[in-house]
Each structure stands twice: as C-alpha cells, then as structure tokens.
Design goal:
Helix content: 40-55%
Structural class: alpha/beta
Bound molecules: zinc ion
CATH superfamily: Glycoside hydrolase/deacetylase
Number of domains: 1
CATH topology: TIM Barrel
CATH class: Alpha Beta
Number of helices: 11
Shape: globular
Order of helices and strands: EHHEHHEHEHEEEHHEHHEH
Strand content: 5-15%
CATH architecture: Alpha-Beta Barrel
C-alpha cells in the first residue's frame, strides 16, 4: 500500500466511487434455484429495476454525480429499458457475471464464456465496458488471469487495500471494496431464517462516516457498494442522499466512475 500508491488529480484528497450492483431477480435465483417459482421472492429483486433505479437516477441527476452500475448480462437482457436509461444518463456499465452464479462454481471455460457473454450484452448499451465485479465477491483461481486475457481494465473485488493497486504481472488494476461499505451486509433480510434484524439507517451511516473519514485522511479511494433493491427503500435513499452530501462537504473529494478512478490510478502507478 505504501510503496505503490496512486496520486489523485490536483487538489484531490480522496476519490469516491458510488457503485450499484443491479442484481434484480438474478441474486434470488442464484441463492436458491427454487425461487424461480416463488413470485414474492422474485418481486424483491424486481423492485430494483422497477422502482429503485429510477429513484436513484433522479437523485444522481439532481446531485450531478457519476456512478458505476455492475449488471449481470441476463439482467440487462431482461430489464433492457432500465439499463438503457442508466447508459443514457451517462453512467458506467460494468460486468457482474452473466447470471449471478459465483465464478468459483464454474469451470475455467464456463467462466470465460460467462465474462465474454456478459460483456457482449453490455456493449449493446455502451462502447466502454472495462470493469468486473464478481457476483457475491467470490473469485475463482482463474478469474484474474481471465480478466487479463480478456483485456478488462479493472477488478473491484478484493479487500486488501484502501487504494487502487495493480495486480502483479498483470495490467488489471484492483479497486478494493469491503463488506462494511456494502448496503446488503447491513440491510439484507433473510426471510427463510429471520436470523438478523434489519439495520437502521443511522447505524449504517455511523459505520460509513467513520470509514469515509479514515479513508479520506489516508488519501484513499472510498468505494461504496449499493444494491438498488436494498438501498432503494425510501428511508435508506434519504440516508444515502444525506451521506453523499456529508462526503461532498469535505474539501478535495472527487466523485468519479470506477473506470475514471482506475484510469487515473493506472497513469500515476505507471
Ligand atoms: Zn450482485
């Protein structure tokens, strides 16, 4: 971390990426294939493209902020108009598998085909598709090699740094993440087990503010991972808007897409 740190644009203290994993129904089907016959389970996922994304796009437009949407290829096919609206608003689209199945459960050939197929779908919406976040943040032993082979610019999966870094002997830049900065880790409700209460926005905001201030002081990259079907409930969206304003009140913050942050990191690490 100390020896290989990117420098940010002039007058920038901290880079901020707002990222949205648009899982829709795919995460429920991957979680349990039987959910394909459970309309209510699927409806929880459908809330993302149907209600949450329009609200999120409206908020981003009002706040004049860029974002990165990681979208499974199948979701982009099933919710074409929603993904078209994201692309037309100028946000980045990046690969999140073809389905939401973990790459760790695929053969190397299946994983490669999934990456290619997913990227091809997203390229029908936008020319630049350069990033990859795996479903559920699991990589196989082959993933990083495949990203290099397929000319992906970045991965946003690892949890071993607070700043982007370049993978050894690879052109792939890592944009690190963490469960603490993932809305689902706090708000996800498992109706099968009822083993965890739904967090309040104030609890989550306390964690996110502490993380942001620490990463800001260290001059890192703050990568917030959000899921439209999770963060898109009205009480959480209100907290998100307030939290973004809180970050924006700091001097030298740079809101950018993941691709933008990675491009800057690559040029300063070279
Ligand atoms: Zn996901």
């Amino acid at each position: 971390m100390i020896n290989q740190s990117p420098t940010w644009p002039r007058n920038t203290q901290c880079a901020i990426a707002l990222t949205f994993d648009l899982d829709a129904e795919s995460v429920w089907i991957a979680d349990d294939p039987a959910n394909i016959d459970r309309p209510v389970a699927l409806s929880q996922g459908r809330y993302g493209p149907r209600v949450a994304v329009p609200l999120i796009l409206h908020m981003l437009q009002e706040m004049e902020l860029p974002a990165t949407f990681f979208v499974p290829g199948k979701v982009a096919e099933d919710h074409h108009e929603t993904v078209q609206a994201i692309a037309e608003a100028g946000h980045e689209l990046a690969v999140h598998g073809y389905t939401h199945v973990s790459p760790a459960s695929l053969s190397p050939a299946e994983e490669e085909q999934s990456l290619i197929r997913a990227r091809d779908v997203l390229r029908t919406f936008t020319d630049e598709v350069v990033g990859y976040r795996s479903p559920a943040w699991e990589l196989s032993p082959h993933t990083l090699g495949l990203l290099k082979k397929l000319d992906f610019a970045y991965s946003s999966n690892m949890m071993d740094d607070l700043r982007p870094y370049q993978h050894p002997e690879s052109s792939v830049i890592e944009l690190p993440v963490h469960w603490a900065l993932d809305d689902a880790a706090h708000f996800w409700f498992d109706a099968d087990s009822w083993n965890k209460k739904i967090a309040t926005p104030s609890e989550v905001r306390e964690i996110w503010e502490g993380e942001f201030e620490g990463i800001y002081d260290l001059g890192g990259a703050f990568v917030l991972t959000l899921h439209p079907q999770v963060i898109g409930r009205p009480h959480r969206l209100r907290m998100l808007r307030e939290f973004i304003s809180f970050m924006d009140s700091h001097s030298g913050v740079w809101f950018a897409t993941c691709a933008g942050i990675v491009e800057q990191a690559r040029s300063s690490l070279a």
